[in-house]
UniProtKB/TrEMBL annotation:
One of its GO terms (molecular function) is ligase activity. Residues 384-542 form the Bacillithiol biosynthesis BshC C-terminal coiled-coil domain. Pfam families: CC_BshC, Rossmann-like_BshC. The keyword Zinc does not apply. Belongs to the BshC family. The gene is bshC. Involved in bacillithiol (BSH) biosynthesis. May catalyze the last step of the pathway, the addition of cysteine to glucosamine malate (GlcN-Mal) to generate BSH. NCBIfam families: thiol_BshC. Keywords: Ligase. It comes from Peribacillus faecalis. This is Putative cysteine ligase BshC. Residues 1-381 form the Bacillithiol biosynthesis BshC N-terminal Rossmann-like domain. The keyword Ligase applies. It comes from the Bacteria.
Amino acid sequence: MEIKEIVLPSINKFASDYVKGLPQVNDFFHYDVKEVKVYEKRYHDLMERYFNRNELKQTIEAYMNKFGIREEVRNNLDLLAQDDSVVVIGGQQAGLLTGPLYTIHKVISIIKLAEEQSRLLNKPVIPVFWIAGEDHDIDEVNHVYVEQDNSFKKKSFYADHPTKLMISDIAYDHELMEKWLKEVFVSFEETEYTKELFGQVLQFSKQSANYTEFFAFIINELYGRYGLLLIDSADAGFRSMQSSFFEQLILQNREVNAAVSQQQSRIRECGYKNAIAMDENNANLFYYDKKDRVLLEYNSDSNMFNGKNSDIELTAEELLAVAKHSPEKLSNNVVTRPLMQEKMFPVLAFISGPGEIAYWAELQKAFELFEMKMPLIVPRMNLTILEQKIKKDLWDTDMDLYEALVHGAGKAKERYLDSVEDDTLRMLHQRLKSQFERNHELLSQAALMSDKGLSPILKKNAEVISTQIDFIANKIKQSTESRNQLVLNKYTRIDHALRPNGGPQERTTNVYYFLNQYGAGWIDDLMSLPLEANSFHKVIEM
């Protein structure tokens, strides 16, 4: 494997300006990630604060026991309990088979940055992955994309679930899951690794009670040897740790709302759109009763907390009692999750996607409200895996890698077809059509002078003949494509590999495609590369 770093255009303007280090964007964060000593600065700031590291260690250990705790994970759990430890953390929803590749890219980014800073700071820096099991949007996690009929199709696992259950509370039918997994693996090319890989995944699915456990089994198998710690945001033990801060969030919910709104105004004044949909009545917490996850609002007139549809109504005292005695009934939203993470973990750096950078910027004042600073916000790595066979296709078609990554192979394919098309036939088709249109127009004008009632039939006649002329042209084009199909297939393969469904590889392709092609050792080969977080897109050449 080799790394090629290139610059690709960014879709998210705010994230792009953040990566560039523009001052007007840096002002929305507590640390400048480009500052030379910034990691040391953040580390010393964390050492001024108290974290219950022993309870955190015990909570994570209890959660991870089911998935098997490797020696490397055990060592990092012990290091986490030390007073001088910090973490690099990031999270994602628990997609089936880990979901699109960007989840894997985030895991790699977490581990690599933790390793780097542990070496540079000479302190224990632990990689942690936060599984967003408290989310309730099942459609975000219940599918992968598979190659079918010369395109990528969404392969969803369909099952009847209550719509507002947390993902971590959604059990699945194991027989249906086995059927779904078989159908996914059938879409892969069978290799020497397929049987063993499928057997392992099937076993994990049978050992799991829900989506997040299935996800955790796989991530632990792939990255446990690198000491990656896992925690599910919906874990009851973890919720218990959050009890006292839930109380603070309830007591200061108006101040939190005001702080976020104030920051959003500053961001709008700088010409950026807001990422978080705020409402003046937001309480920024969900109430969860194992049936529904209800977003709470605060009603200032009645001094009550209630759901939008009045499906629940609690006084402040009642909600505080829930936080104290039943914290598992409360759940964070996009505003309070980062605050809770900062309260629970000594976070040196948070690994973020482009959208996360934008919404974290809106939380600066909310962090200050609780006398905390935002951690270093480090963009996750953006990777594209370039297989040897696709590299050869690029060479054979003389296609530029940058064009393939940004625009896909469609226009290059059209240029090739234009180059092999018979110019004489194309010219004759155009001449025939223009001559016909001109002569038919003369005929129509003459005919209409004697009988205006002929207009519909003349119009229909022109359409039929024009269609037949185009039919011949299309048949000639199809003949050209057929004779050049081997080359055209190369363009299709390039698109499927580098720009599937018209988007980046990381948003469609699943890690099991590569594991099936190259075996479990592919992960170690990838991790052995000198990958570092920077502004470049990394093309990994196989």
